[in-house]
Amino acid sequence: MTDARATRASEPAPAEAASTDKAADDGTPGTTDDTTDDTTDDTRATARPDSAACVAVRARLAGTNINPETLLATDYLNHFNEIIMMLEMVPDMPDLVEDCKEWQPKSYTDHFADSAFRDKALAIEAFALCPPRYRVPFDETIAQMNMLALATVERMEAALAAGETEAVAMQARSASQALQRLMDMAGAIIHGAQTTLDQSEIDAILGS
User: Fold this and answer.
1) By 3-state DSSP, what share of the chain in percent is helix, strand and coil, each rounded to 5?
2) What is the mean pLDDT of residues 114-128?
3) Counting Cβ atoms within 10 Å, is residue 10 exposed (0-12), middle (13-18) or buried (19+)?
4) pTM, full prediction
5) First and final CA of the chain: distance in angstroms?
6) Which candidate, 32, 63, 123, 181, has a CA 20 to 30 Å from the CA of 157?
7) Burial of 131 (0-12, 13-18, 19+ CB in 10 A)
């Protein structure tokens, strides 16, 4: 009799068992439910190229302008085309420096969220799955472009305030060419290239 009572006492009450099952369904700590938030943003870790998510996204890319290998889209580079075009006009129209000041860096996801790109939702989804061998050099190149553009605008503004219009023109020409080179590199990465500029080339460009 004593053994039977001890056995029954060690068994969970029905209510407790139900509570345990519900906790597992809710994905609370210590359960087997590993569900995580699927929010896509610029800091999200990329998935393996052979993962189910990557395979599923690639199957939807036919007829889009999203590269099926890198999962990147060249439409993002239009954001940098804007500042390059303005810089190219600055030597003839120094007052455009004020317009250049309005340009600001914009993340890949923000660009597509605000764009009229037909497949913008898919572009954002695919970006989160971009293989690291492309994502890392792509992010680095974009960061270099942002840094160069902002630094150039600051230098031009200072030169313009000092009445040094020739210096403004030289800075604009140099920066537009350097930005174009970096944008070409970003475009190559989007299309599957894995080469990047070496540090001396980067230093030379950022020092433009």
Assistant:
1) 65, 0, 35
2) 96
3) exposed
4) 0.74
5) 90
6) 181
7) middle
